[in-house]
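Lecture notes, structural biology module. Today: joint structure prediction for complexes of three components.
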Amino acid sequence: MCPGLSHQGHRDGQRGGEGVVELGERLEYKKMLLTGDDAVAYAVKQSRVDLVAAYPITPQTVIVERIAEFAANGEFEGEFVPVESEHSAMSACVGGALTGARVFTATASQGLALMHEILYAAASMRLPMAMAVANRALNAPLNIHNDHSDIMGSRDSGWIILFSESPEEAYDRVIQAFKISESVDLPVAVNLDAFTLTHSAEIVRMLPDEVIARFVGRPPRRPTLLDERSKSFGLMALPDTYQYFKDDHYRSMEESPPSIRRVEEEYKGISGRSYEPIKKYALEDADVVMIMLGSYAGTARMAARRMRSEGHKVGVLSLGWYRPFPKREILDAVEDADTLVVMDRALSYGAPANPLMTDIITMLYEAGMRKRIINVAYGLGGGEFTEDDARTLLEYALKEGPRREFFFYYGGRE
Amino acid sequence: MKDPKLKPQLRFQINPGGWFEGGSSVEYTTNDWRLERPVINLDKCVGCLYCWIYCPEPAIIPLDREGRGPTKVEVDYDHCKGCGICAQVCPTKAIEMVREEVKV
Amino acid sequence: MMEEFKPVRSIFEIPRKERLAPGHRACAGCGPMIAIRQILLVSPEEPIVVNATGCVEVATSVYPQTAWIVPWAHVAFENSAAVASGVEAAMKSLKRRGGIDKERPVIVFAGDGGTFDIGLQALSGALERGHKMLYVCYDNEAYMNTGIQRSSATPYGAWTTTSPFGKVWPGKRERKKDIISIVASHGVPYTATASIYHWKDLMTKVRKALSYDGPTFLHVYAPCNRGWRFDPSLTVEVARRAVETRFFPLYEVEEGKYRITVPVPKPRPLEDFLSIQGRFRHLLRPEYREALETLKKMVDDRWTWLERMATATSKS
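The predicted structure, tokenised, for the full assembly:
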């Protein structure tokens, strides 16, 4: 999303601006002014979810409130279970998924950290489910604002991890998440940045209920607790068998891309909106490419657009998929660039590099590509990042400099 | 040279996510856990089923499995671990714990 | 709301259809496995079982050998009440959408560690939300799966590896947590204690609990011969003496009314229970006399309190 296009709206004043727009015969949508949280709640309502188990945490709260409101008015047909912690939220989702039901939860920050143990269980038990993560910094110091340290802490739990950059993308990605997870038997986390997405209202082109209902359908049959022949789930594996399950889980992630792509294409068919593993902006002949996750990519694109008009060869690449990591797509896109600016909103203390940087540099090494790479830690705990900030970094990268460097970029005013 | 990519074949299926069909533990025998075996004197057995209700395995099998009355029992020696609870609770002392011969 | 239920009057009315298969790897003479077998045998319908991490779970579920003939799920140690909440709520939605004809009973099996300690929050949440489930705590009074460490269910004076007796300590220095009061104070319709020796009482309580449309709770005394240090053949006898000495009273709290279901008008001396277990035997030595008296007083006070509760609530 771009600064200037959004505003911090009053919670109750965000819906409105409705109007049905028809796109040919099949495509139609209703324009609504929604925050990211609201958009996610609508996506859940429309996706015929059986069970929502969630615990409120800023800035995910509105998702839970809105679903409760839908339930209170009979607009949400599933069960809403207001659990007593995020640990129980994820546990109840696992229980629900074991019956073959479609389940959803949402959390952020400390809540995701509290769920940590069960995230691994959900993924390695190969249970489909969707979760929205309203990315927020981790304590200490206490901070409710945006960065990616929460999801990076859960990076290796075996979930499919997607990022959104606008309320509409959050809406679209959550709907896709159910279908993706049910086609590959892996849970899917959809990330939306705290406040910049969760609490900022933008126009969301909502698709009709029946279109979404038809798109998601009912969950396909899989072994469940309700099967005619009783089954046991969550057995203990001794060293002789444990690795087989991990191998299987690992492989399922490796093999997931075609299934995710298929869902993205199908979604394009009903919405006219196209989704891909990465989002490319002005990369064709770019000398400098800024690589990002989440909502600040829009800000960087604004800066790049202006700099392009001034003749600077800069571009922006942002990731829609984080796990599985879209290696091929990124490599193709940055092949000709001289300099990469890898923007991390989470730290990995004492590591050779921060999370996104680690991924990028590993990928380049494998491909035998050597480039100048600047790793920037920025926007931690909601740290500001404006178009000027993006410009500052891109201009820095256009100049000669060391082949490898890392620094904290504080952003904001001087 | 051993192939480092070798994945040993298992005798059983690896179900994704780690589920399995219920009741499969019958294939696992625990008869070698036992130091003593319960031997039932059917002349003394009155069919009260106390041994059955208290067996932790279950390794006591009622001879009449469908009925609703007293029935004598037999021991599933594949699974009995020889705890001796059946002998301890038997009101007619119809079960005797007999030392297993230890084969070395 | 409660459906009709029939008390268990005879061993011969119990269906002989096993819902737990042999070949599990619980220790010989395992008390918890006796409790689980008895409960499953008497459940009127085939339940869905949610199992917390613990002795029972690891002993019954080594891949690919599961002892559960009924549908069964394990996720983690502290969350079985939350997992069961999800199973129950999801079934409601599936039924409403026509995916299933009827909801099945949900039974949780968790040990004292998974209930009194690490799982207490999830349990409290599930009770407060009112999910229809029978939560069974099989109480062997310590963390047995990890090798006999004290829990908040371990009684005063008991030896465990983390509450050893010594020159200063008498064994565990704290009293056993009163889980029934905690559960009852959530306002659930039915909660009770039970013991594997008193199978008729236990099985009747299972039927009664499952007849309620809401959360119910059973606290089942399930001796562990490895952890309590007694001969495996004595598991049931130890459970019997716990009741007959008033050490573990059998009672129920039904719609707020307390009732002692197995009265013990003439209790046996507490020593009859303590002396057959290695974990308590030190209390019979002169240097621990004071601790023994403390424990006896706790047992007496508890019984007196129960009788008073029973009298007070029966009148209302």
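Point to remember: The longest strand of chain A covers residues 27-35.
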